[in-house]
Amino acid sequence: TSNRPSLDNFWMPFTANRQFKAAPRLLASAEGMYYTDIDGNKVLDGTAGLWCVNAGHGRKRVADAVARQLQTMDFAPTFQMGHPVAFDFAEKLAKIAPGGLAAKLDRVFFTGSGSESVDTALKIAIAYQRAIGQGTRTRIIGREKGYHGVGFGGISVGGLVNNRRVFPQIPADHMRHTLDIERNGFSKGLPHHGIELADDLERLVALHGAETIAAVIVEPMSGSAGVILPPKGYLERLRAIADRYGILLIFDEVITGFGRLGTPFATDYFGVVPDLVTTAKGLTNGAIPMGAVFASQKVYDALMVGPENQIELFHGYTYSGHPVASAAGIATLEIYEEEGLLTRAASIADTWQDALHSLKGLPHVIDIRNLGLVGAVELAPRDGAPGTRAYDVFVDCFQKGLLIRVTGDIVALSPPLIIETDEIEKIVSILGDALKRVL
Ligand code: PMP
Questions:
Q1: pLDDT on residue 183
Q2: How far is the CA of 296 from the centre of ligand 1 (A)?
Q3: Which atom of ligand 1 is nearest to the CA of 219?
Q4: pTM above 0.80, yes or no
Q5: C-alpha 35 – ligand 1 centre gap (Å)
C-alpha cells in the first residue's frame, strides 16, 4: 500500500529480514501495552520491545523530560566537563543499586548500550586485577550459552555460535563453562539440580591457572539463549569458587535489571552479590539508548590511585552520561518508583505462571519455564528443520495481534511490567491458538 516505505535500500540483520518477509508489517506507533502497525492494526507487546520497555510504551513523563533536556542542553562531553543531569541520575541509581544495603554496587559508569556495558565491565575487571598487582590475570570466563551483546568483548566471552560464526579467530583464546539445561521442568520454585555445573569453573581454573583469570561473566538468568534458569545454588557456588581464586564475578543484567524478576535486579532476587553488574535496556525504558555498569566500592577503590584519584584505565564513550539519555533515565526511575514497577513482577508472577502453564499439553510444547515476568515455551523442533516451528508460531501470533520473540525453538515472553491480568490472558489465548494451528 502507499504508506509502505520501500525496504530495498535498507540493510537489516538477518533475523529481522526473515521476519519481515513472512510478516511484512511495520510498527508505526506505541502506547502502553500495544504497538500499532502502519495499517492501523494493534499488536499486544509480549516482549516489552526487546526486553526493555518495562514501564510500557509512550510514557509522557519520559517524553517531556527528553524534550526539556533537548532544549536545555542537547549534548555535553561528560567525561571531559561533566553536567549535573548525569550526576543526578548516577546518584538516584546508587540508591537502588544491586546488592541491597549490605554490599551495594553503587559506583556507576554510563555507556551507550548493553554491548558497551559488557566491554566496559570486562575492561574494568582486567584493570582491577592489574591495579591490585595481578597483572597476569587477563582471561575472562564466559558461559557456553552466554549472550553478552555483539561487541568484540561480548562475542569473545559469549557462547552463542551465531554471534561468532564469521569470526573463527575470536573464541580461540577464550574459555567457556557450561550451563545448558535446555529443559529443567521448572514449576514453582527453582529446580534443585544442576548446581554441579558451577564446578565446571573449577575445571577451567585447574586447566589454565587462577593467576591467568580476571573474571567470570554470566547472565543470572540467560535470556537470548532461550530463557535458561539457574539451578538453585548455582550462582552461590560460582560466587564461592570465584572468591576462592581471586576471580571477579560479573552479572550481565542487561535483561534482568530494572524489575524483570520482581526485584530491582537479579542480584537481589538470587541474593548473590557480584563485583560488577552490566545494565542497559530498562535503564531508560528503551526510549533513549543508554547503558550503565555498577561496580562495588572495592573495585572502584582499587582503580583510583594517587592523591588525586587518577584512574589508569582510559575508557569512556562520546555518549557516556549523555544528558538527554540521563534525563530519560531519571524520568524512567521516577515512574518505576511511583508505580512500584521494580517489584510489580513479584506480585503478578503467580498469575503469569498459572497462565503460561495452562499451555501445557498443547501440540509440540515440551517445556514451559517462567521467572518473574519472563516466560518461555519450548517447542519440539521439526524434523530436520530446527527453529522453523517456533518461527511459524511467531508469524501466526503477529497476524493475530501479539508480538512474541523466538529464539531457536523457544518462544520467549517478557511483557512490560505494567501488564494486567486480561492482557496476560490475551497473550496465552493468542499463543495457545497459534500452537494449535501450527503443524
Ligand atoms: N547482554 C545481554 C544479557 C543482553 O540480553 C543484551 C541484548 N539483548 C546485551 C548484553 C547487549 O545489549 P545491546 O543490544 O544494547 O548492545
A1: 44
A2: 21
A3: 3
A4: yes
A5: 22
What is the C-alpha to C-alpha distance for residues 60 and 65, in angstroms, rounded to an integer? 8
Q: Which fold has domain 14-55+340-437?
A: Aspartate Aminotransferase, domain 1 (3.90.1150)
Residue 117 C-alpha to ligand 1 middle, in angstroms? 9
Q: Is 119 in the pocket of ligand 1 (CB under 6 A)?
A: no
Task: Put residue 218 in one of left, alpha, beta given phi > 0 → left and psi -120 to 50 → alpha.
Answer: beta
Is residue 327 within 8 Å of residue 76, measured between CB atoms?
no
| 73 alpha carbon – ligand 1 mean position (Å) | 28
State the fold for domain 65-338: Aspartate Aminotransferase; domain 2 (3.40.640)
Please determine whether the domains at 14-55+340-437 and 65-338 fall in the same fold group of CATH: no
Q: Which residue has the cell 539508548?
A: 289
Pocket lining: 219 vs ligand 1, CB cutoff 6 Å = yes
Q: Which residue has the higher pLDDT, 322 or 163?
A: 322
Q: Convert the pLDDT of each residue in 203-242 to its tens digit.
A: 889 988 999 999 999 999 999 988 888 888 889 999 999 9
The answer to whether the CB of 223 is under 6 A from ligand 1 is yes
Predicted-complex ipTM score: 0.99
191 pLDDT exceeds 70? no
Q: What is the Å distance from ligand 1's center to 91 Cα?
A: 24
Sorted by where each begins, the domain ranges of the chain are 14-55+340-437, 65-338
Digit-coded pLDDT (tens) for 268-289: 999 999 999 999 999 999 999 9
